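Entry, Tuesday afternoon. Goal for today is a structural model of the target with flavin-adenine dinucleotide bound, before we commit to ordering more compound. Inputs were pasted exactly as handed over by J.K., no edits. I checked the ligand SMILES twice against the vendor sheet because last time a stereocentre got dropped in transcription.
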Amino acid sequence: MKRYSAFAIAKEAFRHQLGWERAWRSPEPKPEYEVIIVGAGGHGLATAYYLGKNHGITNIAILEKNWLGGGNTGRNTTIIRSNYLQDASAAIYEKARSLYETLSQDLNYNVMFSPRGVAMLAQTHHEVRGYRRTARANAIQGVETEFIGSEQVKALCPIINVDGPRFPVLGALWQPRGGTARHDAVAWGYARACSDMGMDIIQNCAVTAVRRTGGTVTGVETTRGAVGCRKLGIVVAGHSGVLAAMAGFRLPVESVALQALVSEPVKPCMDIVVMANTVHGYMSQSDKGELVIGGGADGFNNYTQRGSFHHVEETVRALVETFPIISRLRMLRQWAGIVDMTGDRSPILSKTPLENCFINCGWGTGGFKAIPGSGWAMAELMAKGEPGPLAAPFGLDRFREGRFIDESVAAGVAH
Ligand SMILES: Cc1cc2nc3c(=O)[nH]c(=O)nc-3n(C[C@H](O)[C@H](O)[C@H](O)COP(=O)(O)OP(=O)(O)OC[C@H]3O[C@@H](n4cnc5c(N)ncnc54)[C@H](O)[C@@H]3O)c2cc1C
């Protein structure tokens, strides 16, 4: 595949941009592959990419029922951080964050990683204690964070009202190398690199059944015919329960719509990401000037990828004391994605009761930040048939054994 570079841009400028190739091929499905990945979101595409790059497996099809990156990967608010409390979580999220640092160079695709810094506000004494504890845990885990005071918060983000009568800002957990990336560029960059390695990305191809002989997977039925495989990876976020049912097992996962919204574009006014978990809202400013605002999940299980008006009101009401600026802004768009929530708010990267069938799900409200690390760990699991150190704690067996990785504070409401 042609490399993207300043030289290539200059060359194309002289020939009317006619020399660019399509970023990825759109082949017809073959009868059989070594590996099938269901779901062309960030996690599925990253799994395929690291199977090729780290393990030399390229006879892969990635099957996507809609368009690639059209699930949660293209619907999230793009926050990247690794300031989790538990060692297993910090390890996989920090692996992902560190891969994001050089992902544009690695993929030869600008994913616009912007390590502008993430502040998680402490607005109660309970949160102060909790975030001080996380900062100490992060120091031991090798994750760069610190607890900062309210003056420093105000200096980093002048539009914050730190003296709110109800929820004053008492400090924040600050991760200076956290930030954002362009969500669909992450999917597109991985897709282009996978296609370049000879993998087939097949869009508009929904998996409708999982074929098995005895207890072993042999392939899938799709809306474009049957496709055989030796190994199957299910990476479909909010639809994990549906795919698991096709494969004959159940998952401890609930699917709910998580919503977000953006304001009209305004001049640059905040250059960090701020999360306010007590009131439940968070905000950053996109390159277009819109304030990107994340809200809550619906209180009931559903598969409706749409926003609802009361969420706009609730989220803006929650944030307006801390960010008075938003009281005068018009809200431009809202949307939702179907997130896959586990009981301990930690992901599942695991073998399944079906031989040669693996699952990657449960990233819930916060899996965008994990995409490179998750793909890395899932590829190792699928290539070797056993989890490596990053994936090992996240097996399905933990629910049977009661060995939870409780991130309900770091992941349950935050992103
Ligand atoms: C509003 C919102 C805000 C968020 N904010 C953040 C954030 O700031 N930071 C963060 O880290 N995370 C955030 N997240 C979470 C993050 O987006 C997800 O955890 C992550 O994108 C999941 O990626 P994925 O590849 O697993 O899933 P997806 O991107 O959803 O991909 C799964 C794919 O599987 C496909 N599929 C489903 N069923 C089938 C089938 N039968 N056959 C074939 N294909 C199928 C779907 O069409 C989809 O494209 C947010 C999520 C939402 C919804």
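The pocket of flavin-adenine dinucleotide is lined by residues 38-44, 63-66, 70-73, 75-79, 206-207, 235-237, 239, 243, 258-260, 294, 337, 339, 363, 365-369, 415 (CB under 6 Å).
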